[in-house]
Amino acid sequence: MTSARCEVCPHACRLVPGSLGACRARGNVNGRVLPLAYGRLTSIAIDPVEKKPLALWKPGSTILSVGGYGCNLRCPWCQNASISQVGESEVAWRSVLPEELALLAAQAHESDARMVGVAYTYNEPLVCWEYVRDAALFVREAGLANALVSAGCVNRKVAEEVAPLLDAANIDLKSIRAGTYASLGGDLRATQRTIEILACEPGCHLEVTTLVVPGVNDTPEEMEELSLWLASVDPSIVLHVSRFFPAWRKTDVGPTPVATVYALAEVARSNLRHVFTGNC
Ligand code: SF4
After folding, report:
1. Tell me, what CATH number does 251's domain have?
2. What pLDDT, on the 0 to 100 scale, is given for residue 2?
3. Could you give the CA distance from residue 134 to residue 91 in angstroms, rounded to a whole number?
4. Domain coverage including residue 263
5. Distance 5 CA to ligand 1 centre (A)
């Protein structure tokens, strides 16, 4: 049997034919790793861009938001575990090819000009980055915009392939500690590199979200370090400091105190120009 290694993210899953990667979106078919979740959408909705969240990109507009299934991280507090932590047989999906998605977006734009494009979101879009790439090309051809909402934990090639097709992105920066990332099944350096690549992409407006989880990343020292690193990339990057609510496997602590979120946002404001609080 020919095993093959997936090169999309730092997990570098080595897969034997018929097996799935840790993300459950990719698998080995006849010796090749393929994006099995390509075009399989579990969620499709028109959302305000502020909900992505994108605070300083086309405010007041809406966006056709689509997600599939699968994720390469295992954050215990995932709000979307019902689609991110499952495979194809555990969730309802329908196939929407890139051309069809662009057509849906164009129709939505025709009936409401405030609807500006497509957001790839809800689960981790980049485990099926080929779909993002292909759909984004059609969406752009239709004169509409592409936005990515992602944890950004992918290898350089994937980030570089997708970046030029994006008009906006919100990337999670879950912590500035490598150990915290490792405990979530992620990789800090890969995430930082994706942020750096998107920050250098002239056509892409970049925002970053940090969910403040009690006992995980809620100290002023960590927020100081995180915001200083972001400022070293570009002090005009927008940061959302967001409030945690218990979800999925993280129910042993209550929501982050609002006062903590506000205090950490103040810390971040000493290093960054645009800091917003979320879920407060
Ligand atoms: S994208 Fe999925 S299959 Fe590929 S290395 Fe990452 S977790 Fe493994």
Report:
1. 3.20.20.70
2. 86
3. 23
4. 4-278
5. 9
